[in-house]
Amino acid sequence: MAAINLGATGGAPGATASARRRGQFHSLEVAEVRPLTAESVEVTFAVPDELQDAFGYVAGQHLALRTTIDGHEMRRSYSICRPPSPGAISVAIKRDLGGRFSSWANAELRPGDRIDVMSPQGTFTSALERVDGVHVVGVAAGSGITPMMALAHEVLSRSATSTFSLLFSNRSTLDVMFIEELADLKDRYPARLALHHVLSREQRAAPLMSGRIDQDRLERILAELIRPESVDEWFLCGPFELVQLCRDVLAEQGVDPAHVRYELFTTGRPVDAGGDRGRPVQVAAGEDVWTLDFTLDGQSSQVESPVAARESILNAALRVRADVPFACAGGVCGTCRAKVVSGSVSMTENYALEPDELERGYVLTCQSHPKTEKVVVDYDV
């Protein structure tokens, strides 16, 4: 998540539905842009005193960024990469091939610039009340390391008996983001942090650590380096194929899915919503329509949509309210979450909502399509 680190979760809930808060954009000033590799930067935003509460977060959450590039509004989400610190919040942005936002951020973003930043979102977080003696494993590829940085800091700093193992896949040493920070973290916790770097295009001394992570290599790593029976909690972050591979292999080895959390970049599928208005849809006289009523910030709005257009709840809502919340429009970040008050919808994809949220009637409006003539949703609950 294009690697844009969109927050999706799976398995056990990190933050419960009741703990979620609907994101709101605030204009923040860029305090620092620090190169990480030739293709990635760390961007730090200054958080003024009056917004400290709005930007409080826990390790593993992400930020949605919004700006206008060449006359087009663009939104992308990136994981927070630093432990909570008053007055600042940081994300890492890796340049994607053809990625307009990530390329712009790497080439043109400068200290003093201002960007709309949404308050922290996501449930890719540790819900462990105690971490004494706990073994946590992170599996990441490329920019999937971003949330792992904050998670590793949290787990290791909270208890003198916790351990963290990181399996980190990259093409080469030059592509490793946060390589110095990881080395510093290892120096600080030499006995409790295990780093396993896997390089797909660079030969390493250990053959097991050289090559792409496929099913065979992952099974060997779990047999020789990270024994599943020793692990209390798993965090997976990377492209869909790697995350799904890890989930499948862990399930085959008897790991309880309730202890496996994951975050995706993107699913790689095209999305409908664009900019702040959604794709254009016109209602012709006499054609069948469905009606959407929705509440946002205490204000009710209504829009009709042609049945034949097959547009999503989000797209329809954006045509009458530019402030409807969304970031990825791909079913992975959860920003467009709302509760169905009446009517019925079907969701195409869901990589963001927990089972308890689904039971309570929450949906991802970017992936939801009406099954009844009228649908009523509430973004405020």
Residue ranges: pLDDT <50 for 5 or more in a row?
1-18, 269-277
Assembly state: single chain
Order of helices and strands: EEEEEHEEHEHEHEHEEEHEEHEEE
Give me the side-by-side strand order of the main sheet: 4-3-6-1-2-5
- CATH architecture title of the largest domain: 3-Layer(aba) Sandwich
User: Main β-sheet, in a few words?
Assistant: 6 strands, antiparallel
- Average per-residue pLDDT, rounded, comes to 89
Secondary structure category: alpha/beta
Residues in helices, as a percent range:
10-25%
What fraction strand?
25-35%
Tell me how many strands there are.
18
SS field, number of helical segments: 7
- Through-space gap between termini: 27 Å
Q: What's the gyration radius in Å?
A: 21 Å
Q: What is the C-level CATH assignment of the largest domain?
A: Alpha Beta
Number of domains: 3
Q: Overall 3D geometry?
A: globular
CATH homologous superfamily heading of the largest domain = Nucleotide-binding domain of ferredoxin-NADP reductase (FNR) module
Fill in the CATH topology of the largest domain: Rossmann fold
